[in-house]
Amino acid sequence: MQIAFVGLGKMGANMVRRLIRGGHEVVGYDMNAATVSELQNEDMIAADGLAGLVKALNRPRVVWMMVPAGKIVDETIASLIPLLDAEDILIDGGNSRYTDTIERELKLRSKNIYYLDAGTSGGVWGLKVGYCLMVGGDKKAVDIVSPVFKTLAPENGFLHVGPSGAGHYAKMIHNGIEYGIMQAYAEGFDLLESSRFEFDLPSISQLWNQGSVIRSWLLELIAAALKEDPKLEELKGYVSDSGEGRWTVQESIDLAVPAPVITASLQARFRSRRENTFSDRLLAAMRNQFGGHAVKK
User: Fold this and answer.
1) b vs e for 227-237, b when ≥16 Cβ sit within 10 Å of the residue's Cβ?
2) What's the pTM value of the predicted model, to 2 decimals?
């Protein structure tokens, strides 16, 4: 199948590679000329802009956007609309907020352009093991693009989950769950590392993946990270968030559905970015005031 990719970052580039290896014809564009050149050497058809990218496609055209959520998605859509025709298909494979996706789909539907949202999970390992795809949008368009979805995904790793926005909603909740799982692992290993015992943490993480109820791919990644740096001395404990955890917590508030673990894991990420905060200094001051407890200057 023929498909175009806009955005050739870490995820986008490896998705292109997997599709080429699966026999698809891929046209690609990115503002980073070096990345375009690298993939061109791997049999991707390079485009020097969006107009050239669309021109290289047969109708109905299929264009996959793999760009950061937010303004750049709207800018890319605005640039593509004049270049696309009715029955063409535009896919957002990034982590857009599902409410934005629904609004964009309505706008494109008025121009008879299909808009699909493909929640994509797999990270840098997707090239090798495949990408889990949660796809929302019109079934007719999903069926047309299904050969691409099936190549990108491992066996049983692609599902049409519902109408427009459903794919990004499912990915949002997926990432919220991910926050909670990661935080639980982090706290558990922190306890092991701080205990009276001299645990071999890489060995513990490998052990737990042998039949235990908490075995997982994340544990494999923990084992790999700890093998490289057992005390994680090369890292700073600063943990970013890309939005989906916040949106999941906001959704729990809007629906009045309790999500205390996910909420706490998001707050822990906020906490990781602050040092010597005013709140901590005030806590120390209060303890000193009421109990005469020692403080550190």
Assistant:
1) eeeeeeeeeee
2) 0.93
Write out the two tokens for 106. Answer: 């309505």
206 to 102, 157, 168, 216, 223: CA distances (angstroms): 42, 25, 33, 10, 6
Strands of the sheet with 89-92, listed across from one edge = 45-46, 25-29, 2-6, 62-65, 89-92, 114-121, 132-136, 158-162
For residue 170, the one-letter residue type is A
Q: Computed from CA positions of residues 187, 192, 194, 200, in that sequence, does the dihedral angle turn out positive or negative?
A: negative
Residue pair 29/57 in contact (Cβ under 8 Å)? The answer is no
CA–CA distance, 124 with 122 (Å, rounded to integer)? 7
pLDDT in tens, 78-87: 999 999 999 9
Structure tokens at 228: 């490289």
Active site residues: 171, 178
